[in-house]
Amino acid sequence: MASVDLAIAGLAIGAIAALSGIGLLVTYRTNGVLNLAQGGIAALVAYLYREMAVVWGLPVWLSAVLSLAVLSPGIGVALERFVFRPLARRRASAAESLVASLGVMVLCLGICAGIWGLGAQTDTPAVFPDKSVSFGSHHIGVDTISTLVLIVIACVALGLLQNRTKFGRQMRAVVDDRQLAELSSIPADRVAAAGWAFGTTLAGFTGVLLAPRISLSPYSLSLVVLETFAVVVAARLVSLPIAVLAGLAIGILQSELTQFTVHGSLADLYRTLGSSLFVVVLLVLLLAIPNLRELGDAGSAGSFSSRGGGEEGGTVAERSKDLVWRIAGVVMLLAPMIFAPSDLRHAFMVPALALIFLSIVIVTGYSGQVSLGVAGYAGLGAVFALKLASTGLIGIPRLPGLLAILVGAILVAPIGLITGYPAIRRRGLTLALVTFAVGAVVDRFVFEQSSLTGNLYVNPLHLGGWELGDKAFYVVELIGLGLGLLAVRNLHRGRLGRALLAVRDHNGGAAAVGVDVRNLKLLAFTVSSVVAGLGGALLAYSTSSFSSDTFQPIQSLLWFTAVVVFGADSAVGAIVGAAFIVAIDVMAPSGSSTLAVGILALVLGWLPGGLASAVRSLIRFVAEQLADQFIEPGVSTRWPVPAQAGAAYIEATVPAAALGAVAPGGAAAGSGVAAADRVAADRGLALTPFGRTLLGVIGAASAGPGPADADVVTGSNRPLDIRVDRPTAVGAGGYSSRNHVERGPR
Amino acid sequence: MSRAELRAVGLVRRYGGLTAVDHVDMSAPPGLITGLIGPNGAGKSTLFSLLTGVEQPDEGQVLLGDRDITKLRPDKRSRLGLVQTFQVPSLFTSMTVRENLLVGVENRRRDYAGGLFGSGIRRNDRHEQVVDDMLASLGLNDLAGAVAGSLPTGALRLVECARALCTHPDVLLLDEPASGLDATETERFSQLLRRIADAGVAIVLVDHDVELVFTVCDQVYAMVGGKVVAHGDPATVRSNPTVQSVYLAQGSMT
Fold it and tell me: How far apart are CA A439 and CA A436, in angstroms?
């Protein structure tokens, strides 16, 4: 009998998860975007609903209608129109969509935290009346029944829509190939917008239904929603019925687990399993399914870093000479030394956070993999260090604090290695989900276990019998950061640096010349986890406490987004980013930094390469403007592009020899221009008069033998940049093939 | 130094009900250029992937010299001397040409972890010398400092080939090396291939351009429907009735 009641209880959660899963699936099927922001949107809608019902005193039904029927779809339509449509238009990689959806997630969290704070609200009214229907001796809540009905309606409606209507056929066409569908005059944008609106509406439902059950706080609610990714992964992102069944099954199973009790040392473990079955299933499924084909390999190597990296200068040697940026970082780090004591304490978090960011730079910027689990490694570093300093750990005796920090960080390495091994064999979004699940599991099974972390306290650090003061601790932190930077530098230089860069640039090409791609990725992953561990340990010391909140899984998403914003392969960007976030958090109400990062992440669409790159190109632009005053026009082969002009201009690199190939024989200068005109016109672009002149000059040079001939190479192979007016956002980069117009290095 | 021969023995690869490669035997002896032709869907790309290790065969073996390399990953095969180039050149676009070649030279060993503590950061003069020689011998000196991402296709192919040669391969597998090249460039490329083969390297060439294959290769395998239908010197294969009918039907061979 108890089982049946438990099953009914589980059904409630399972149904909500299934609803969320349907929303995710529909968005994915219509847009090809795995909406990581689902949780953030759910939280935002739940907060809005509560605001209307509780604060403004509107009737519950009206608040529900407003938030679910107006606001939720509105959010979806707005997201499609202003964030994801531009991305789809320029055929952005799945990695860019991932970052965009993370940006939306962070933005939603930031809005929630900024307006309503990070604290939990427990007064959200339930949408459906708190009554239950009896059958026999059992009771089933009205809300559960309603949710189930909603699921059935959604499934049936989707099924009918897809198979019986014109809109459904259009939908399937758009899913197959958006560009092709548009060519067949299918309103792809409308289909995409409908998909988004549907997805966010279900996200809203998820939030509004969940909020009364769990306490409403931005992080915890969105985490619960993120855990429902288990459902879509079980459905392999394809099958609606499987998603629904999986949601209900996990919900019921989770509930059934509570009727048994396990005694002894496994009791805590078992209890945790009962409360986090979704996360565990997510991880297990991701590990069991070798590669979600549906998730593809999109977003694998390079997609992140190439936006920030290899753009200007590009080579290893050149990029490490980024002086201006470096000096800024050093100044920023040393400035706190002259601060008043209280300000210095605030600054404690900067080097620690910078280390955590560095670890993301290593794994994402240098080896081109997404990692959404960094908070897990950071937290483990903190736990290990504090344990070692207080009681000792797994046979290692108690260590002095400073040594414990170091050893604690190193102890994260085996865990990075073990979790990295399955992770690196996956790519793109699958990898992102695996790392997220690892972080979430670590959080549930380690950080939130009071038996493990309940009695962790931070003792003052000593060195040679002296207790370290604030300044001394800050110096210790800087030394730690120095170690991290050293690791980063060594990963970036010499044979190892080249090999890693090779892996990032072209996996297959690297393997073809014998680079051990798998081990290199594993190495990067492991080093990254150690650096994160060091950062985490220092973070715990700088806040004088260990709190599982500091290292909760959502933090990983925030941090990852911040790193991408500040330039995924810029070590200094990591430091500047950390300083930025800490400064905002100190000066503005909590949550403001989240909001800022969210806004920046969405602006990133206009600033590819992150802020670091934007600032760099701005500096270069100014420098070259100044330089141009002294140089005759036309002599310089590189033309500056204003940092902000990325939206208005593209800089097309047309190797003159390629133009030769377009115009067979490549004889006369005029034909080069004509060819460029044709190529440009193909893409809805037009040559500027300037570009025309330039081409005319160079076209003559390309009339010689082909580029394979080294003698003319000097003349003909140097890329020559022409500026092309770009009237619309028509995907200029999308079709790029090596022997036509390319989006050149900016 | 005598170099190893690449052999495929009874290779089979099925996709569902379709047998893309059907009991194929072939060999690529050192010093010869071996061509692989066939109409679309004949299975030559699949066979190529089986040789490079990108895909695993359902049956059969790939042998390099005496060694069975069937189960090895591409990077391991590369370290053993079986190096491929790609249909779309696979250069490391954010590095210079010189750095690209260096990567080719310096990855026979895998002791990367040492790099964390600073090993391998100093210039290795021996490696630099290999790169210098390669650049000089292929006439790429002027490109050495150029960032690979900025080069046109013709140069990319040449640099990719140079990078492959820097690994000192026994066997070089080339996937449509002439696509995207104009007539002059193709001609130069053919001459280069001959030079490489004369140095004792076994070359396997897959290309759509049947004329190129017949001109440059010493022996040709023609595939149709996953099977090798003709094998021998170019003249023999060209006059083979099956090959004739396939290409006459497609109108691409005169």
Answer: 5
Among the residue ranges A173-182, A203-212, B77-86, B204-213, the one predicted with the least confidence is A173-182
Within 8 A of B84 by CB-CB distance, chain A residues are: 512
Across the range B77-92, mean pLDDT stands at 88
Better-scored residue on pLDDT, A616 or B182: B182
Structural domain that includes position B129: 6-250
Q: Which of A514, A520, A657 sits opposite B78 (nearest CB)?
A: A514
- Does residue A594 sit in the same domain as residue A689? no
Among B52, B80, B103, B137, the strongest candidate for a mutation testing the A interface, having the largest count of A CBs within 10 A, is B103
Half-sphere exposure of B148 (CA within 13 A, CB side): 27
Residue of A nearest to B104 (CA): A513
A513 touches chain B (CB under 8 A): yes
Interval A630-649 mean pLDDT: 40
Cα–Cα distance for residue pair B229/A203, rounded to 1 Å: 58
Name the residue range of residue A568's domain: 305-328+349-605
Please judge whether A509 and B88 are an interchain contact, meaning their C-beta atoms are less than 8 angstroms apart.
no
Chain B contacts of A501, Cβ < 8 Å? 92, 94-95
pTM for the model stands at 0.77
CB contact under 8 A, A316 and B95: yes
Contact A497, A371 (CB under 8 A): no
**Model pLDDT for residues A240-250, shown as the tens digit of each residue:** 888 888 888 88
Number of domains composing chain B:
1
Token look-up 């008043």 returns: A340
Q: What CATH number corresponds to the domain at position B164?
A: 3.40.50.300
Contact A506 B142 (CB under 8 A): no
CA distance readout (Å), B170 to A527, A712, B21: 35, 32, 24
Report the relative pairing of strands A466-467 and A721-725 from DSSP bridges.
unpaired
Torsion-angle region of A610 (φ positive above 0: left; ψ -120 to 50: alpha; else: beta): left
Given a contact cutoff of 8 angstroms between Cβ atoms, the answer to whether A722 and A676 are in contact is: yes
Q: Which tokens hold the place of A611?
A: 């802020």
> CA–CA separation, A356 vs A375, rounded Å?
8
Tokens representing A653 are: 């690199």
Task: Please tell me if residue A640 touches chain B, with a CB cutoff of 8 Å.
Answer: no
Contacts of B110 in chain A (CB under 8 A): 516, 519
